[in-house]
Amino acid sequence: MLNNMSGETLMLFLVIMLALVVVLIIFLRWFSYRERMARIAQEKVRGFYEDPEQQGRKQLSNALTVTLIGVAITIGLLTMGIGPWLLGGLIPIFVGLSMVLTYVISAADKEKDNKALTNEVAPAKEVKGTETTVKENKDNDNK
């Protein structure tokens, strides 16, 4: 009777914990929804991560998190030996690595685009022997 009672208590505890997690997720989604509606009311529709560099850092952070979780699961499952159960850790590793690869490729594309833009609008080079400055040129234009 005692063993059965502790099993029921454990099951009740797990159900309560699961219910709390579900309530937390629902609350966070509701809070995010209310915040978005307030932004729309203020005509600030853009997302939290308006800066592309910040979006890239967030993407890289998520990728590294997934990869390291996969490594931790794989190490934990290796204690049981080599077998098909290692897929539970190897899959997150490779999903995380693909996310890192996506970040690296997109960062290289952004850098190439930035170089192309700077080559199109290259600043004028200074010619040695001239002592004029931008301010002097503006003064001459105003005359």
Characterization of the model:
This protein has two domains: 1-48; 51-120. It has helices at residues 2-41, 52-78, 87-120, 134-142. The longest helix has 40 residues, at 2-41. With 143 residues, the protein is an all-alpha fold.
- What's the average pLDDT? 78
Q: Work out the number of β strands.
A: 0
Overall geometric form: flat
The Rg value, from CA coordinates, equals: 28 Å
State the major sheet: none
Number of helices: 4
How much of the residues is beta strand, in percent? under 5%
- SSE run: HHHH
Structural class: mainly alpha
- Total domain modules: 2
Helix content: over 70%
**Low-confidence parts, pLDDT < 50 over ≥5 residues?**
none
Please give the alpha-carbon distance between the first and last residues. 102 Å
Fold blueprint:
Elements: H1 2-41, H2 52-78, H3 87-120, H4 134-142
Helix pairs in contact: 2-3
Short summary of the structure?
Helix content is 77%, strand content 0%. With 143 residues, it is an all-alpha fold.
Provide keyphrases for this structure:
4 helices, mainly alpha
